[in-house]
Amino acid sequence: MEYRHLGRAGIRVSELSFGSWVTFHNQAGIKLAVDMMAAAYDAGVNFFDNAEVYANGKSEEVMGAALKKLKWRRGSYLVSTKFYWGLNKGINERNTLNRKRLIEGINGSLQRLQLEYVDLIFCHRADKTTPIEETVWAMHNIIEHGKAFYWGTSEWEAAEIVEAIHIAEKHHLHKPVMEQPVYNLFERKRFSGEYERFYKDYGYGSTTWSPLASGLLSGKYNKGIPKDSRAGMKQNSWLVETVTDKDKLAKVQALEIIARDLNCTLSQLSLAWCLKNPYVSTVITGASRVEQVKENMKAIEVAPRITPDILEQIDTIFKVRKEEDED
Ligand code: NDP
Q: How far is the CA of 112 from the centre of ligand 1 (A)?
């Protein structure tokens, strides 16, 4: 496993990491969480991603209980959480990055995770109604109180991130150092477009999400929706349209030929493709089974075998997307 700096920050993250989004609590209880996290950690993963909103706080509870059982040395791993949507419907408690909510948010997360501090905290989305200055100060204060070490953004516009950086620089506050954007073979427009220059100029790190487009890029939806898959679950019916999209499925099938030539699985190829981007600090993987974790971790062996020629072949398959990128 390679460990990449989170942009210009001193901390290093494993190139593949592990997240708990719709899986922990919904698909994985404590026992399975322990087994999957152990498989990832044994493969060299040092970063585990979470958010207060995942399973309405229960995902943090499951990860906290798992970490307690795993008894790893605290210095050997990083945990993150994120704030924005909140857990309650109060006017100051949802869709916000106001100071009160952020401070209450971190305190709640630490309790659920049973940790004294988390390592990374993210503003899960931008809040168009709270001044960015207030949010920057609140994130700075959380870090100053030792409750987190680094902070970042998720799906913010480049201009908003630049504003946050400038505010932090002006007041000598802790700056945001990483973004958490979607990045996979189907959704690369923002990461390879708006953000790319920005990563170069500001040395921002990135922890990218949904590398398999929720499993679509594993090829599991090529013959319909398996009952025991993410899209097969009632609460994820929003995914059905995407995983049955004929154009997308044709691309996945075409990709299969390249995977076969490389002697790897579609999941490994799709993850390895993400790893090839030098602006990716870590690719956050997701899984509902230990076998998937083990399979996915082997993507690190596939990445060095992806030549510029293969990258071009992949781009040809995803041509429509590429043309959009160039708009
Ligand atoms: P993926 O796109 O990789 O999807 C993971 C899912 O795909 C698994 O849960 C599993 O679903 C299926 N899968 C994974 N590996 C395999 C395999 N080898 N073979 C077959 N199926 C496989 O990642 P996620 O969408 O889970 O995102 C990863 C992480 O990113 C999240 O956990 C979260 O931490 C973060 N994230 C952040 C967001 C943000 O807004 N900041 C938004 C979304 C995610 P199943 O078996 O159930 O079909």
A: 22
